[in-house]
Amino acid sequence: MKEEMNQYLEKANVLVEALPYIQRFNRKIIVVKYGGSAMVDDNLKKSVIEDVTLLKLVGFKPIIVHGGGKEISSWVNKVGMESKFINGLRVTDDATMEIAEMVLGRVGKSLVTMVQELGVKAISISGKDGGLLQVEKKYSDGKDIGYVGDIKNVNASILFDLLEKDFLPIVCPIGLDDEFKSYNINADDAACAIARAVNAEKLAFLTDIEGVYKNPEDKSTLISELTVPEAQKLLESGHIGGGMLPKLNNCIDAIENGVSRVHILDGRIAHCLLLEIFTNKGIGTAILSEDGPRYYKEEN
Q1: What is the spatial distance between Cα 194 and Cα 180, in angstroms, rounded to a whole number?
Q2: pLDDT computed for residue 176 by the predictor
Q3: What mean pLDDT value characterizes the chain?
Q4: Max Cα-Cα span within the chain
Q5: CA dihedral 176, 179, 182, 183 (to 10 degrees)
Q6: pLDDT value for 242
Q7: 37 three-class SS
Q8: How far apart are CA 129 and CA 105, in angstroms?
Q9: For the chain, which terminus, N or C, has the lower number of CB atoms within 10 Å?
Q10: Rounded average pLDDT over 131-152
Q11: Are 295 and 23 in contact, with CB atoms under 8 Å apart?
């Protein structure tokens, strides 16, 4: 009986610990970039959707921006084509663009189903809908990579309208240029642009790494909080490479354009969003402005 009571008390303590964070971010917008292993593993997928749905139910205004790179590559292979990348960006010809749009649309609708099974209204919207994401052709170091777009404008009023009507928007990163041609958009870039446009309180990237390290070779050097100047010094140090380089640049760009706080989380950890947002220590890396409040308390 005592053991059972201790379990109840532990649950109560968790709720009490979460209370100040719920109060601080009530009615604030949080953008979640959903990708990586969390989109492939069914259990992780379920935990992410549960997290986002809970955020909605306790007063947050979440927006999901999803990728789908692994599934796109799978379908490209299924039809006998070969995925090509230049500087980490998918070369998108006509046929690949058609597959990408099909796959991303399918992913969005499946996420809508999962959210609505938990009792929250959701809607999947392409960046093409209502001119949500207006793009121009993107080049990679001067190289033509096909139908890959750079976002030049976000029609945020669409997202504000959906949030006002109590929907959870789920955004597919496909956009249109001035000639109304479809372009694939890097999901990290789309999440960052959307977070800026809606003046999000938080932007969270779900990744396949634990966070940002002072020394990537030493896992004990995980950084819980990082100011923009500190992040810029890390970039200049040359220690940051691979996929973290553009991601960290996106984080800095978001903070400098009005987003209050950016989180880089390990999407392979079940309920990583709740652990990062509602606990004193957090589990990933949070990037904030130089004068931003430090939320996490160091353990004694």
Answers
A1: 20
A2: 96
A3: 85
A4: 69
A5: -70
A6: 66
A7: helix
A8: 12
A9: C
A10: 91
A11: no
